[in-house]
Design a protein that fits this description.
The chain is mainly α and about 600 residues long. The chain has 22 helices and 13 strands. It has a 3-stranded mixed β-sheet. Strands 1-2 form a two-stranded antiparallel sheet. A two-stranded antiparallel ribbon has the order 3-7. Helix 1 packs antiparallel against helix 4 and helix 7 packs antiparallel against helix 8. The radius of gyration is 25 Å and the shape is globular.
């Protein structure tokens, strides 16, 4: 694979990411090196730089448009907004030249190669590295290698462990080989390599992460290990003990939460509250810093949607600039004004790439009263705001023509058409000055020219230097609430549906909580959504994952790994009705196949593509 020899260049500059420590955070800063050798990595500075480069490389997988497309589109939860009509990954018209495929493919392998180098360095080869540091750094590197492989295997199936110098060995020479055969045997090795790496990480990482940094810890490793066991149990590489091991590993984290520094927050809204990014429910997140585009490796944050940009704050927003009102009917045509002036920081850029499906809104979140997670995940109300700190006088004056002021409700999305009809029917003093949209208006516009829909708020990012910028917030990868879901699913698969219900009800009880409710009111709402063993099956588990994890960049592999893409997607996402059996794996990119010296390239490709 010719793209794999990126670690030690002879003629071009390689950017490594080195670590600067501050009182509260570890800040990633780029430092260029023109040339270097393996000896550099035998030093404390070089070894640590390679580890932190592994951390920084995760930014390619969490936040940019390609990574989001691969994990969000083509699912039961999300379809395309009007800025991504007929996206190939959503309508399942995927070719081997699809650019989004290259986001993990072109980036993950060379990070794996770098990690292979330092993982395999023997203690006696190192110059000034303390043994205690080496063990922890290798544990971090092995977690990261497992995560990179997890991200590849869950999309493409089996992928090479041998990058040209042997399995899990560093390679610094160009190769035209593509060591993917036999595929079934390789998939077994892929999963075992991930499990071995994560087991080492569990044994050797610190018990807890720092309070103000997302250094890896045992909690993140236990969580991912439980998930990998579960995924292997569903795969062609399954072993009879996988579901039991998944359960045991998740329960170890749940029962040892105090030891590992993990906790469920009382209020679901606080999990994603900006400024509370380092809370104990987030086990691991890809680090970014507010208003620090340099540290976030964003050279042009207003135009770069790919590379390492965290675009989650912008991609799930509906067209809030679309609704307008008439402030002067005497002109021809009548003079109009948008309810929102520009793009206020709190609303993000209305890039309208991902829109929730009707199934997500109406079925998964059918009970929006007793379960607080919909209200704490989606925006349904927009207020009259301006992008300017001092709103233009013309905007203020035009609002007042229709009885609105800055800060008033500008438009409101109702949860039922009945509520929308009632509000629209009001007259006289009761008439609402704001615009009202009912659910039937979210989904009936076939041309998608004015899509107004509930907009995900989990990744809202106000702390940005410019209203066009990408987010500077850390992006969660693993969350303690999901650990409960993994344990519940494993319990169900082991025939312990009562145990599964108990684990899910921990999340249900939290979902019933809203600030201001009395204990009796919380208990009443919990009783309305509590589940029993009879409710538990794989589809219920997947529905509950939607309620808890909607938008958290894992839905496509979640469905694919469980063999549920073909069952659930066509009935819940009409735009994705073209899905075929071979779409449960992504195609190996054509650019990779073109580099293989073997003329029989088809045998390396996934079926049908």
């Amino acid at each position: 694979m010719k793209f794999l020899n990126k670690l030690i260049p002879s003629s071009r500059c390689l950017v490594l990411v080195t670590l600067l420590s501050t009182a509260c955070n570890e800040i990633l800063e780029e430092n260029p090196y023109t040339t270097f050798t393996k000896d550099y990595f035998k030093t404390s500075g070089g070894f640590r730089s390679a580890v932190v480069t592994g951390y920084a490389g995760m930014r390619f997988n969490y936040g940019p448009i390609g990574a989001l497309d691969l994990n969000v589109f083509g699912t039961d939860e999300w379809t395309n907004g009007d800025q991504a009509i007929s996206s190939p990954l959503n309508v399942y018209n995927v070719s081997t030249s699809e650019g989004d495929l290259l986001t993990p493919w072109n980036n993950n392998f060379w990070h794996i190669n770098t990690l292979n180098l330092i993982i395999n360095l023997k203690p006696e080869e190192l110059v000034d590295v303390r043994e205690a540091d080496r063990v922890v750094w290798v544990a971090e590197a092995r977690y990261l290698r497992a995560q990179y492989y997890y991200l590849l295997v869950t999309q493409f199936g089996a992928v090479p462990l041998d990058l040209g110098s042997g399995e899990l060995q560093f390679n610094d020479l160009p190769t035209s080989a593509f060591n993917r055969l036999p595929v079934d045997d390789l998939l077994v090795k892929n999963y075992q390599a991930m499990i071995d790496d994560l087991t080492f990480a569990v044994e050797n990482l610190p018990a807890k992460r720092p309070e103000r940094a997302f250094n890896l810890s045992k909690s993140a490793a236990l969580h991912l290990l439980a998930k990998v066991y579960l995924y292997r149990g569903y795969s062609a590489a399954s072993q009879s003990t996988d579901f039991q091991n998944a359960y045991n590993t998740a329960i170890q984290l749940i029962n040892g939460k105090d030891t590992y520094g993990a906790a469920l927050l009382e209020n679901f809204a606080d999990v994603f509250r900006e400024g509370n990014d380092y809370n104990a429910e987030i086990l691991y997140a890809v680090e970014r810093l507010p208003k620090n585009n340099t540290a976030n490796e964003m050279l042009d944050p207003s135009t770069d949607f790919a590379n390492k940009a965290n675009m989650t704050n912008n991609m799930f927003n509906s067209n809030y600039q679309g609704p307008i009102f008439v402030f002067d009917p005497s002109t021809t045509p009548p003079s109009t004004q948008a309810y929102i002036d520009g793009r206020p920081l709190e609303y993000g850029r209305p890039l309208r790439r991902f829109a929730p499906t009707q199934w997500l809104f109406e079925t998964a979140f059918a009970d929006k009263k007793n379960d607080s997670r919909f209200d704490n995940s989606f925006r349904m109300v927009w207020y009259a705001r301006s992008v300017s700190a001092t709103p233009p006088a013309t905007y203020v004056d035009r609002l007042q023509v229709i009885g609105l002021n800055i800060g008033d409700t500008a438009f409101y999305l109702t949860k039922t058409d009945r509520e929308a009809d009632s509000l629209k029917a009001l007259t006289g003093a009761q008439k609402k000055n704001y615009r009202v949209f009912g659910p039937s208006e979210f989904y009936t516009n076939a041309n998608r020219t004015n899509l107004i829909y509930p907009s995900l708020t989990k990744f809202q990012s106000i702390q940005r230097a410019n209203f066009q910028d990408a987010s500077g917030r850390p992006l969660p990868v693993s969350r303690f609430a999901e650990t409960y879901l993994l344990a519940a699913e494993a319990a169900m698969l082991l025939g312990q549906s009562g145990e599964a219900a108990d684990l899910i009800n921990v999340l249900k009880r939290r979902a019933a909580y809203r600030p201001g409710l009395t204990p009796e009111e919380v208990e009443s709402r919990y009783a309305a959504i509590e589940v029993t063993a009879d409710d538990i099956d794989i589809d219920f588990i997947l529905d509950e994952r939607t309620r808890e994890l909607a938008g958290e960049h894992s839905r496509w592999p979640d469905l694919a790994a469980r063999g549920k893409l073909l069952d659930r997607v066509p009935t819940r996402n009409p735009d994705a009705a073209n899905i075929q059996p071979h779409h449960v794996l992504r195609p190996i990119p054509q650019s990779q196949l073109d580099r293989i010296s073997d003329p029989d390239k088809a045998k390396y490709q996934n079926p049908v593509y």
